[in-house]
Structures are given as structure tokens and as C-alpha cells.
# Entry
Amino acid sequence: MKLKITSILLLAVIAGFSLIAFTAKDDVYKVDLTKSSITWEGKKFAGSHNGTVDLTSGNLNFNGKKLTGGGFIANMTTIKDADKNGGLEKHLKADDFFGADKFPAANFVIKKVEGNGANVNITGDLTIKSVTNSITFPATVVWNADKSVTATADKIVIDRTKYGIQFKSKSVFSNIGDNFIYDEFTIAVKLVAKK
# Structure
């Protein structure tokens, strides 16, 4: 009986090691911050503003050439307006908007990737001001001659009110008239990464 239990345990240990040995590990590609970017655009009734925000870090995970995971962190204290409007930049960093002093980082974590080849749909968790929501958007993944990879999402639509940013929102303040800012803003993300 003792020999039988020992044999079963030995087989279980061998099976466990076999599973570990044959489980494919994803390759991690580190994002090159000098070649990568995040741009943004926000609209109001009378026009729009656009600019950039710097990346702090990022990585993309691949199984072969299939994107399986990853994410990035944005430094919200670096929000810039393309028109160099210092007052707007200060306001975007204030509590009315992104509260950059209290919440200096926003991050995105990939949870699911659908599609094959260059065109995929990515679903993940976006955290802004310590509030996390799931978002889905189309992206393109291209392998470069230097063995780096470029992942691009040209239009990620974000509803700011889902992150507690209600300043001049017509859906929150119905009597605001034409003096409103649209709830949705967009970002475009380009990540260039190498193993």
C-alpha cells in the first residue's frame, strides 16, 4: 500500500514538472520611450484642443508573433497642449480634470487580444484617478526589420465621466447650454518595443 501511494505521488510530481516544462512562456518586449507616444484630443462646443502626455514605461507580451498581453503607464504630470496654452495645461492637471498631483499615473493593462495578423481588437483595464474601467479598441501590430514591433491604436475613445471627471459635462449639468465640453475624448497610442 505504501509503495502504491509513493508511486502515485511520484507520477503526480513528474506530471507536474512535465506541464511546467512544456508551458510556453511569453516573450516580453520593452517599450522604447524615445520612439513611442501618446497624443490626446478633447472637444468642446466651440472647438477642440490636442496635445501629448509622456509615457513612463510599457511592455508588450508575445507568444511567437501573437500579442498576448502588456500595458503602459502615462505620466499625467506631463500633459502638454499643442498650442502651448499654459493655463489649459494647468487646468487639465488640476482636480477638475486629471488631478495630476494626487494621481500622477494613469495606466492601461491588456486583458484580451482578439484577431490574427496585423489587425487586432484589444480589451483592457484603463485606470485614471484610481478608477478602473474596461475599454476595447482596434489596433495594428507591425513587425519591423530591426526585430522591434510597433503597436498602434489611432483612436481610443474614453468617457471622462466614468473616471469622475465631470467639469462642464452636459450629461451631468443639463443647464450648461453651449458652454460644455464633450464627455468623450480620444487618445492615440504608438508603442515601439524590442525584446
User: Anything to note?
Assistant: Helices lie at 2-22, 86-93. The chain is about 15% helix and 55% strand. The longest helix spans residues 2-22. The chain has one domain: 26-194.
